[in-house]
Each structure stands twice: as structure tokens, then as C-alpha cells.
């Protein structure tokens, strides 16, 4: 099935021999892959309130799915977003790069310049704001982060540059809280008070941009409690479904999202649970070069499709981003998810 969603029945023209130079050396810029008619028709039938996309875009393995041929990853990182955005199913993207280091207005503006008018971005807040620990190069916590959930830093290093640089291409701001040390997990009231102060400041800064969604993703199941939903509602934010091995399955996260109803859906399908909570490296090795479905997860896909159909059917927006680590190839997962959404809407 995954092949029929992408493969056009018309035979493609002969490709250059494997020893030929990559397209990055043969032409300037990145060109999109031709879109099979069935996939284009399916994209046109999806609810307009739904935006699906990938977690970043610089994967050479998407040759003939998103790109028209072989490109180097560095070329795709710099120039591939415009070609990515021409794919009819890819109406959003998660800018993950901002999590590791704050981006500037000009960096965001370069992304915006590659995007069509109807495209919207999901952007992650820098970890200097959302991680309670300063981490060593191996990822282990080294010391407490004095800037954890600092409202002013969030406004100046994240919200302001995204607004100025992306403009109307900004769709969602995601505050992903890294796994918390016990010191914070044992003091949920203090944590929630600090998070509420940050979200209130961010929402105030977005007063003239009410269309921008503010979402919080967590990596600690202990936080999925009514008090968390209460603070999100009071601050005008929502819960980001984080489908990841560190979190419970999607069905166990949905009650918190229902507590915020009515409201939008923000979901990041990050990692197939079969790889466990620390399985990113294993998933990368199993899925490279990210060109096919290798770890299918039909249960999550079906539940997510029904959730999307219900939320968009009630007039609410849905942003869903998918990682290659979810099933092996984000564009193919998105195509299968789109098919499942259409089936759920007609059921």
C-alpha cells in the first residue's frame, strides 16, 4: 500500500546511471518530485483545517518522494524547504533546529521566503528555556539551569524572532519540557506556577496574533494531571500529544486533551514505541535511509486518524508532524495517515 500512494502508474523516464553526479552538482536549487495523481486527489479531499508535515526536511532518502532525485543533505537543509512545501500533503513542518540553539530573525526569514502563502510552521522553543538542566555533550544533566522557564528569555530568544522572521508562516509554538529531575517532579505546584507565568507572558506577547497556537509537550507521565490541564486552559495554551517511548501510548494521553476541549490538536509523532524510551539511535539505524516503512504502527496511525477526523470535523485546527523514527519514512507515514483520515471521515 505504501508504494501505491506514491508510485505513478506512468513509467518514469530513465534515470542517470548510479555513477552520475548528484543533482546538487547538476543544477542550482532543489526540485520537487512529481506528485502521483492519486496522492494529489487524496490531499485535495483532506479537511482544510488539517496540516501534516515532517520533523525537519533534509533527508536524501526522500528521493522521488519529496525530491526529484538525489541531493546532498547539506543542500536540502539550505534549499530544500521550498521543494518540500510544494508537496500537497506537506502543509507544515517542525523546525527542530531551534531547540538546540536559538535562531535569529534573519534565519527564520530565510525559511519564510521559501514557503507558499498557505504554509505554516511548527517551531520548538530553545532548550535553554525548556530544559531544567544544563547538559553535557553526552546529554547528561550537569547542573541546574538558571534560565529554566524564564518568561523574558522565552519572549526575546524565541517568540520575538519567530514572529518577526516567519510572519504569517508561523502556526504553532511548542514548548517541549525535557525530562525533569526529581527535584522538579516532586514539586509540581512550583513547576506549574513557573510554567503558567511563562505561558501567560507568551500569550500576552501574541495578543495581536491570536491565530498562533501555543502548545506544551512533556516527557514525564507524572505531569498528565488535571492541574496541568487547568494551567494550560488558563494561559490560553494547549497540550501537545508527544508520541514517544518516554510517554504513555496515545490513548492514555487523550484524556488530558479532552479536558481542554474545545481546542486545536497539536501532535508530534516522534518515535515508535517499540524502540523504547531511549531508542532514537536504534531507530535511526533501523530506518536509514528513511525511504520506506520499516516499523509500521497501524494502531497509532488509526487512533490518530480518528482523532484528527473528530477534531477537524468539529471545526478545530489540527497540526500533526511525523518523524522518520515513527515508522521509517515520514512522507510515507503521512500518506498512510491521510488515507486513514479520509476513511475515518467517511465511516
Helix content: 40-55%
Number of domains: 1
Using only C-alpha atoms, the radius of gyration works out to 20 Å
* Class per helix and strand makeup: alpha/beta
Major sheet size, sense and barrel closure:
8 strands, parallel, barrel
Describe the overall structure.
The protein is α/β, with parallel strands linked by helices. Strands 1-2-3-6-7-8-9-10 form an eight-stranded parallel beta barrel, surrounded by six helices. α8 (151-166) runs parallel beside α10, α10 (188-205) runs parallel beside α11 (226-234) and α14 (298-313) packs across α16 (330-346). The protein has a single domain (37-346), classed as TIM Barrel. It contains 16 helices and ten strands. The chain has helices at 23-26, 37-45, 73-79, 81-84, 97-100, 105-113, 127-130, 151-166, 182-185, 188-205, 226-234, 250-259, 280-287, 298-313, 324-327, 330-346; strands at residues 50-55, 92-95, 120-124, 133-135, 141-144, 170-176, 213-217, 238-243, 265-269, 318-322.
Summarize the structure.
It comes from Acidovorax bellezanensis. Mean pLDDT is 92; it is low at 8-27.
SSE layout:
Layout: H1 23-26, H2 37-45, E1 50-55, H3 73-79, H4 81-84, E2 92-95, H5 97-100, H6 105-113, E3 120-124, H7 127-130, E4 133-135, E5 141-144, H8 151-166, E6 170-176, H9 182-185, H10 188-205, E7 213-217, H11 226-234, E8 238-243, H12 250-259, E9 265-269, H13 280-287, H14 298-313, E10 318-322, H15 324-327, H16 330-346
Parallel strand pairs: 1-2, 1-10, 2-3, 3-6, 6-7, 7-8, 8-9, 9-10
Antiparallel strand pairs: 4-5
Helix pairs in contact: 2-16, 6-8, 8-10, 10-11, 14-16
Amino acid at each position: 500500500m505504501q508504494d501505491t500512494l506514491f508510485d505513478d502508474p506512468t513509467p518514469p523516464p530513465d534515470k542517470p546511471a548510479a555513477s552520475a553526479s548528484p543533482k546538487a552538482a547538476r543544477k542550482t536549487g532543489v526540485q520537487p518530485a512529481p506528485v502521483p495523481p492519486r496522492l494529489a486527489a487524496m490531499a485535495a479531499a483532506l479537511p482544510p483545517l488539517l496540516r501534516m508535515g515532517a520533523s525537519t526536511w533534509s533527508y536524501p532518502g526522500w528521493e522521488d518522494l519529496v525530491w526529484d532525485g538525489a541531493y546532498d543533505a547539506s543542500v536540502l537543509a539550505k534549499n530544500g524547504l521550498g521543494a518540500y512545501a510544494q508537496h500537497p500533503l506537506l502543509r507544515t513542518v517542525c523546525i527542530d533546529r531551534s531547540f538546540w540553539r536559538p535562531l535569529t530573525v534573519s534565519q527564520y526569514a530565510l525559511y519564510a521566503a521559501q514557503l507558499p502563502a498557505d504554509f505554516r510552521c511548527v517551531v520548538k522553543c530553545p532548550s535553554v528555556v525548556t530544559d531544567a538542566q544544563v547538559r553535557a555533550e553526552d546529554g547528561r544533566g550537569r547542573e541546574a539551569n538558571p534560565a529554566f522557564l524564564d518568561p523574558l528569555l522565552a519572549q526575546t530568544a524565541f517568540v520575538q524572532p519567530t514572529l518577526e522572521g516567519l510572519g504569517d508562516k508561523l502556526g504553532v509554538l511548542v514548548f517541549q519540557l525535557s525530562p525533569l529531575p526529581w527535584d522538579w517532579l516532586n514539586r509540581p505546584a512550583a513547576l506549574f506556577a513557573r510554567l503558567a507565568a511563562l505561558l501567560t507572558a507568551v500569550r500576552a506577547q501574541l495578543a495581536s496574533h491570536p491565530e498562533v497556537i501555543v502548545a506544551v509537550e512533556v516527557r514525564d507521565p507524572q505531569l498528565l494531571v488535571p492541574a496541568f490541564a487547568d494551567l494550560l486552559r488558563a494561559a490560553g495554551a494547549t497540550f501537545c500529544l508527544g508520541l514517544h517511548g518516554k510517554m504513555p501510548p496515545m490513548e492514555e494521553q487523550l484524556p488530558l486533551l479532552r479536558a481542554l476541549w474545545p481546542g486545536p490538536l497539536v501532535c508530534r509523532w516522534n518515535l515508535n514505541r517499540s524502540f523504547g524510551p531511549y531508542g532514537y539511535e536504534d531507530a535511526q539505524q533501523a530506518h536509514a535511509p528513511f525511504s520506506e516503512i520499516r516499523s509500521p504502527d497501524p494502531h497509532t496511525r488509526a487512533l490518530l486518524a480518528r482523532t484528527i477526523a473528530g477534531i477537524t470535523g468539529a471545526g478545530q485546527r489540527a497540526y500533526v508532524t511525523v518523524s522518520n523514527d515513527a515508522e521509517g519514512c515520514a512522507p510515507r507515514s503521512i500518506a498512510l495517515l491521510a488515507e486513514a483520515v479520509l476513511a475515518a471521515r467517511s465511516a
